[in-house]
Input
Amino acid sequence: MGEIVVFELPLEGWIAIGAFGFVILFVLWLVSVVRIGKLKRRLNAFLKDTGAADLEGVLAKLHERAEALKAASDRFEQRIAALEAKAERMKANVGVLRYNPFDERGGSDLSFSLAIVDESQNGVVVSSLHSRDESRVYAKPLEAGASAYPLTPEEKEAIILAKRKS
Output
């Protein structure tokens, strides 16, 4: 029984094949070293101002910062909701109507009705009636645009003017 020979090459052929394989492995090793060097430089540039020694530390710090930003965002949302609720109750809508309530000839519009209401039409209507002899001021509370006291047409008009501004 004889030996099975797969390739019949002289020793120099095997050395040449081994040397070629060594050169290929050496080139692959050099490429890997260069790539690893580039990756290390990029990682060092990434970690430079973070104060962390490794990527895990950077991710942990980023997670902490994200949590802090989420908490701050939640606080801001609560404050915004409170301010929006407060703004709805503010008496920011104003309607003014000037008029002459008396049949005086040559009179001027020195009388007025002033409505100050919030978004729900709660507030007050103030009327001042001016004549030659006297001036009178009346204030009537408003809830949902109505009052428990009788409203004059001029006061109703002032409320309508204030509603238009809401």
Observations:
- The CA atoms of residues 99 and 109 lie 4 Å apart.
- The mean pLDDT is 83.
